[in-house]
Amino acid sequence: MTIRCSGGVVLMTHEILNNVRKNLQAITPYSPGKPISDVKREYGLKDVIKLASNENPVGPSKKAQEAILTALGSLHRYPDGGAVDLKAALAAKYSIPTGQILVGNGSDECIKMISETFLNPGDEVVVPSPSFSQYWFGTQVMAGTSVQVPLLDGFQYDLDAMLAAVTDKTKLLYLCSPNNPTGTYIRKDELRHFLDQVPSHVLVILDEAYIEYATADDVASGIDFLKEGYNVLVMRTFSKMYALAALRIGYVFCREEIATEINRVREPFNVNTLAQVAAVAALGDEEHVETSRALNSSGYEQLTKGLEALGFSHIPTQANFLIFDTKLNDKELFQLLLEKGIIARSGTALGAPGYLRVTIGSSEENQLFLNALELVVSKLRQKV
């Protein structure tokens, strides 16, 4: 069968559609938190706050903004394909050779490049559950098999179970710390004991997108283990603490020989110029980092006190978000909050039914959330 437009041009045939790789049929496009503009339009609201995507309420560094303005006049030039200045800045900050650094169009592209480099059809990837959905996506794109290992009570890692899930077919193993969407983390001694037992054919990927927010004394840093020679790849981002989410820029630390292989699948100009110059400037703005960290700390205290007053218990977090047990229909709760102009994240959508995840926002945003939550929860509890 063919489908034609009014001009008689053939648009597509069943034969072409039959050529689509079958493993892609399991993939549905990623569904991010609803944009503020959509919620305003759908519900006729003037004021909407978004606490769904773990964005930094402080906004980007002033230094990063200035760097962007300075670079605007060179937009007719292609970006630096090697991200030389950014790699140099990262190397200086973390004392890691530039040959061990890769830069990507957000952590999403880093995950996809890793998958494209190491996975053949049928290869296995061990992932915690719930955790970041893009690990599964990268695996599925390459027709691999995602082996999901449930977290323990309190959303703690079951590292023994993750080890037990490793087989001869396992190529990659993901650990997210602090974990998204739970905020829980892996301790240094736990990670060392774990890595000492992982078979040498498995590359352990440590996703540390939220590591700059972590304050626990015993939180593991993947960079330390990489420097000690462990078989790990450390993945970080400028989207969270550095508040450059719109520019899409993530980066990887790994062994140089691994970086060389991943570079084979990297697009020539995968990170744009504005992202690169902003990241360099943001990396050197410690005042912005400290301000962001302080706001997150005070916001966490504000939210937890408010949630406790409403009868909710939360999972302690080391990130810029928290998740709590609603003991209600989380999808219904999410919808009622949406109608009041509060965009949060349903636990069901994140693999944690019954829970709600909320970004730690500004003091005003946090209070608006708590006020709205009190109203809608009262309504839902009356129905139970």
TrEMBL record:
Gene Ontology MF annotations: histidinol-phosphate transaminase activity
Class in the EC hierarchy, top level: transferase
Domain Aminotransferase class I/classII large: 46-373
Record Gene3D superfamilies: Aspartate Aminotransferase, domain 1 (3.90.1150.10), Type I PLP-dependent aspartate aminotransferase-like (Major domain) (3.40.640.10)
Alphabetical list of InterPro entries matching this protein: Aminotransferase_I/II_large (IPR004839), HisP_aminotrans (IPR005861), HistidinolP_aminotransfase (IPR050106), PyrdxlP-dep_Trfase (IPR015424), PyrdxlP-dep_Trfase_major (IPR015421), PyrdxlP-dep_Trfase_small (IPR015422)
Cofactor(s) annotated in UniProt: pyridoxal 5'-phosphate
Record text on subunit structure and interactions: Homodimer.
Official protein name in the record: Histidinol-phosphate aminotransferase
